[in-house]
């Protein structure tokens, strides 16, 4: 931010400390993947251990000197820490190392900035970056005194730091207002889907679990998919037709990661609402990952943090081609689909996923053939108005035989208003 920055391929020294005070420790391998995903070139990984972080420089004086020598030997342009650093720690480290220092939060923000493609995504990233930057402005302006005015403009003035903070506050306020407008538009779209009784299925999961590849296979979309962390940043919605259910909306969302920075959770509130308003969460898991269980716990923690832990869920174990196993559906004690094992890359098991989703959503749907007498035209009109009639025929008595599909709650509400009886010929 305050040092010259090349486009990509920056040589980076990575630092990871094992701290006795840390309960949930970061994964060094995942951190290296994050650096590679950001376009960095890791030249060496420095490990160490301490009881607690050093208040001023996070690492001790001996380790700091070791990092400095490694940085000079490799002519590295940046040093990255697999931890959250305070603004003063970043400032002190940069003073000693004479290069940019980035912590885990700053690295994730940088990746998000590279991945943002839509207007909303760019606004969300900028908001998170500005909030993160506002506490670190001082390091760029410690060499400046107060601004000096000319004749007739002399006075106490305002420091450059204060000017920048004021401009930052104004920009943050502007972005929040624009995101609020986007959120209202999303709310309007969700209300329209709710009126049309179209359920939403949201794909969630750890980053690089294969959500976008799965999304593309199911919807014939062309969402960017790559074997890298945070390949997807902007949410994408597509319609999907399911047998016995009809139309559903499938949402591809941003991947989660261990200890996702709170600034990002707050900034991406509008995006995460697609998850909050879903009727079913398909939690995509990298079945071939050594960290499979830990990653799943991290996803569940984020879902609980955003208030989505009560939404029905279906676990989708992806990348089965790497395990050389057969696709399958695993059910709970009541016979309800609980896990689907598949490969989004090869397409094996996608039919099982659609079957499981239809079964989970179909629990609250009525699929039936009913017979209506000519005098029950009002009920027939209501069913057509709700797009619930799949097919219609007339029998020899002049009665309408309708194949209907609609939520049971809506059916019960219609029947409660009906004075005459409705003949149910067949129900599934």
Automatic annotation (TrEMBL):
It is found in: Cytoplasm. The keyword Transcription regulation does not apply. Its main location: cytoplasm. The keyword Ion transport does not apply. Keywords: Cytoplasm, GTP-binding, Magnesium, Metal-binding, Nucleotide-binding. Mg(2+) binds at residues 212, 232. InterPro entries: EFG_III/V, G_HFLX_dom, GTP-bd, GTP-bd_M, GTPase_HflX, GTPase_HflX_N, GTPase_HflX_N_sf, HflX_C. GTP binds at residues 205-212, 230-234, 252-255, 318-321, 343-345. Its cofactor is Mg(2+). GO terms for cellular component: cytoplasm. GO terms for molecular function: GTP binding; GTPase activity; guanosine tetraphosphate binding; metal ion binding; ribosome binding. Belongs to the TRAFAC class OBG-HflX-like GTPase superfamily. HflX GTPase family. PANTHER family: GTP-BINDING PROTEIN 6-RELATED, GTP-BINDING PROTEIN HFLX. Monomer. Associates with the 50S ribosomal subunit. GTPase that associates with the 50S ribosomal subunit and may have a role during protein synthesis or ribosome biogenesis. This is GTPase HflX. It comes from Aequoribacter fuscus.
């Amino acid at each position: 931010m305050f040092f010259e920055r090349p486009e990509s391929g920056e040589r980076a020294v990575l630092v990871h400390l094992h701290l006795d005070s840390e309960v949930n420790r970061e994964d060094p391998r995942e951190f290296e993947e994050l650096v590679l995903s950001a376009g960095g070139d890791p030249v060496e990984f420095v490990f160490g251990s301490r009881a607690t972080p050093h208040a001023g420089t996070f690492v001790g004086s001996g380790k700091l000197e070791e990092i400095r020598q490694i940085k000079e030997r490799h002519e590295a342009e940046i040093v990255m820490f697999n931890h959250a650093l305070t603004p003063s720690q970043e400032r002190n480290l940069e003073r000693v190392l004479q290069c940019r220092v980035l912590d885990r939060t700053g690295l994730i923000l940088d990746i998000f900035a590279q991945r943002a493609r839509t207007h909303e995504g760019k606004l969300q990233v900028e908001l998170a970056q500005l909030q993160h930057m506002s506490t670190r402005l001082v390091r760029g302006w410690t060499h400046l005194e107060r601004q000096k005015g000319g004749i007739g403009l002399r006075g106490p003035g305002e420091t450059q730091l204060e000017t920048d903070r004021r401009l930052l506050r104004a920009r943050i306020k502007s972005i929040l207002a624009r995101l609020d407008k986007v959120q209202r538009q999303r709310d309007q779209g969700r209300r329209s889907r709710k009126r049309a009784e179209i359920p939403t299925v949201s794909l969630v999961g750890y980053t690089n679990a294969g959500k976008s590849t799965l999304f593309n296979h199911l919807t014939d979309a062309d969402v960017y998919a790559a074997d890298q962390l945070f390949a997807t940043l902007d949410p994408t919605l597509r319609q999907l037709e399911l047998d016995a259910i009809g139309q559903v909306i499938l949402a591809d969302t941003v991947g989660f990661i261990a200890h996702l920075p709170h600034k990002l959770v707050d900034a991406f509130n509008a995006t995460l609402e697609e998850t909050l308003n879903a009727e079913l969460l398909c939690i995509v898991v990298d079945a071939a990952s050594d960290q499979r269980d830990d990653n799943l716990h991290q996803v569940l923690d984020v879902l609980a943090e955003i208030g989505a832990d009560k939404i029905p869920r279906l676990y989708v174990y992806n990348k089965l081609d790497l395990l050389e196993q057969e696709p399958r559906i695993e059910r709970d004690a009541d016979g309800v689909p609980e896990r689907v094992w598949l490969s989004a890359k090869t397409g094996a098991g996608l039919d099982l996923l659609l079957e499981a989703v239809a079964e989970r959503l179909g629990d609250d749907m009525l699929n039936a053939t009913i017979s209506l007498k000519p005098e029950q035209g009002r009920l027939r009109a209501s069913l057509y108005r709700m797009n619930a009639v799949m097919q219609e025929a007339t029998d020899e008595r002049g009665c309408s035989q309708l194949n209907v599909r609609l939520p049971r709650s809506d059916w019960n509400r219609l029947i409660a208003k009906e004075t005459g009886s409705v003949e149910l010929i067949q129900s599934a």
